[in-house]
Specification:
85 residues, 5-stranded antiparallel beta sheet, 5 strands
Length: 85
């Protein structure tokens, strides 16, 4: 079975995820909303989910290449809508 392509979401896109749109976030409180400025997406082992790597909107260095992403979380592909409420 072929795997789905990664969704097309531009680097720098602001994603507003509800608490039920993501899980397994590093340093995040489960079940809460989170705002991520997208740096990168990578495949997850489970269909319909992707790893989101990015920065919080308060990060001072989101465009410095050597600065690792502040946030990493597993998100539902269906939730990756730019500026979704």
């Amino acid at each position: 079975m072929a795997r789905s392509a990664l969704p097309r979401v531009a680097v720098g896109t602001v994603l507003r995820l509800r608490g039920d749109d993501w899980r397994s976030g590093r340093g995040l409180t489960p079940g809460t909303g989170v705002v991520v400025v997208l740096a990168n997406l990578t495949r997850a082992d489970k269909e319909g989910w992707v790893w989101v790597h990015g920065h919080g909107p308060q990060c001072s260095y989101p465009h410095v290449e050597s600065h690792p992403p502040c946030l990493e979380l597993l998100a539902r592909v269906a939730a990756l809508r730019p500026d979704a409420p």
